[in-house]
Amino acid sequence: MKMKAAYTLLGILSDFSQKKVKAYLDEELDMWARRGVHGHFSGKHPWALGDECIVELMADIVGARKEEVALMNGLTVNLHLQMYAVESQLQLHGLDVEKCMLMIQPRKGEETLRIEDILDIIEKEGDSVAVILLSGVQYYTGQLFDIPRITKAGQEKGCYVGFDLAHAAGNIELHLHDWGVDFACWCSYKYLNSGAGGLAGAYIHEKHSQTIKPALIGWWGHEFKTRFLMENKLQLSPGINGFRLSNPPILLVCALHASLEVFGQTTMKALRRKSILLTGYLEYLIKHYYSEDKANPEKPFVKIITPPKTEERGCQLTLVFSVPIKSVFKELEKRGVACDMREPNALRVAPVPLYNSFHDVHRFIEILGSAITSAKQTANNAATS
């Protein structure tokens, strides 16, 4: 049985949204052929307003108000526009990265960060910190951070608090507005399924809509009602919309639209409920079949480095192996499983509730055993050759 690319973090669309993507793309290409430039302001979804037609669907997923969210650019571009692609921005302003960027590391012998250590650093260093930027879900370990507690602690010290939600959007429940998060950004080609290079999202809380202005301004940040008058007088849109640079790429809008409509047929609460069960089932089976057996040191084993508490992880489990990981990865690919290897020694496995089933998880566990056996045999052959 060939698996359906079940565990990739690269964003596999369901059959339904794949068909919708093709239909939407064909529709826009047909409009380009028939109307040319006039498509910008005519038709069901005028190109000049394409992103605004779907922004409410995105806002629902991240728990924000429509006017707090913009769909634009790619993730790193949005990090720069919000002045928080930290290391390069420090260098750009002539600052010493070693002195001005405070990094948080796990305790010795541990893989993930403790919330008490994060809060302790904020308490000790917060008075000298301008911006706190963390991931919502850490890409390597799959650790989910306590966004509301970190936000509250940072703001009490007068810091702006923001999150890179690349691995969180579409994966966990988010309530950015209610949590009071100052800013955030995310890509859409992971759990949001828009395809490689898909249109990214950005958020600024409405409390900053009149006070925070973009450092780099593009003409699409201009108020729509006067944007095309070309009077050379800036009328900046408030909040995140003032950070937009250029008109939206309509083909990327189409791909994202198709996926967001699928999300619109359910809720993140329902997806999260299934996700907890699905990942919990995967965790149980891995521990049952592949835990370390000290009575049998020759038996290959798998270790999960993602936190065991459901409130501290999304759907991803990060695995490390007692046998060479590259061989395991190769053997899994041979068997039709799409997952993701990260150096130095991690395999990221994510049963996504939108399109994965409990049967997928069970089948993966069977295939994993075969892959580990083959990887061990390859290692033994290499050792004796």
Automatic annotation (TrEMBL):
Q: Where pyridoxal 5'-phosphate is bound, by residue?
A: 75-76, 135, 164, 167, 189, 219, 247
Pathway it works in: Amino-acid degradation; L-kynurenine degradation; L-alanine and anthranilate from L-kynurenine: step 1/1; Cofactor biosynthesis; NAD(+) biosynthesis; quinolinate from L-kynurenine: step 2/3
SUPFAM superfamilies per record:
PLP-dependent transferases
* GO molecular function annotations of the record: kynureninase activity; pyridoxal phosphate binding
Indicate the enzyme's highest-level EC class. Answer: hydrolase
Q: Which keywords belong to this entry?
A: Cytoplasm, Hydrolase, Pyridine nucleotide biosynthesis, Pyridoxal phosphate
Q: Which Pfam families match?
A: KYNU_C
The stretch of residues making up the signal peptide is none
**Which Gene3D superfamilies does the record associate with it?**
Aspartate Aminotransferase, domain 1, Type I PLP-dependent aspartate aminotransferase-like (Major domain)
GO annotation terms (biological process):
'de novo' NAD+ biosynthetic process from L-tryptophan; anthranilate metabolic process; L-kynurenine catabolic process; L-tryptophan catabolic process to kynurenine; quinolinate biosynthetic process
Superkingdom as given in the UniProt entry? Eukaryota
Cellular component, GO annotation: cytoplasm
The record's EC number reads 3.7.1.3
Catalytic function, reaction form = L-kynurenine + H2O = anthranilate + L-alanine + H(+); 3-hydroxy-L-kynurenine + H2O = 3-hydroxyanthranilate + L-alanine + H(+)
Could you tell me which residues carry N6-(pyridoxal phosphate)lysine? 190
Name any cofactors this protein relies on.
pyridoxal 5'-phosphate
Indicate where this protein resides in the cell. Cytoplasm
The record's NCBIfam families line, in alphabetical order, gives: kynureninase (TIGR01814)
* Function field: Catalyzes the cleavage of L-kynurenine (L-Kyn) and L-3-hydroxykynurenine (L-3OHKyn) into anthranilic acid (AA) and 3-hydroxyanthranilic acid (3-OHAA), respectively.
- Self-association or partners: how does it assemble? Homodimer.
Record family assignment: Belongs to the kynureninase family.
Query: What protein am I looking at?
Result: Kynureninase
What organism is listed for this UniProt entry?
Gopherus evgoodei (Goodes thornscrub tortoise)
- Gene name as annotated: KYNU
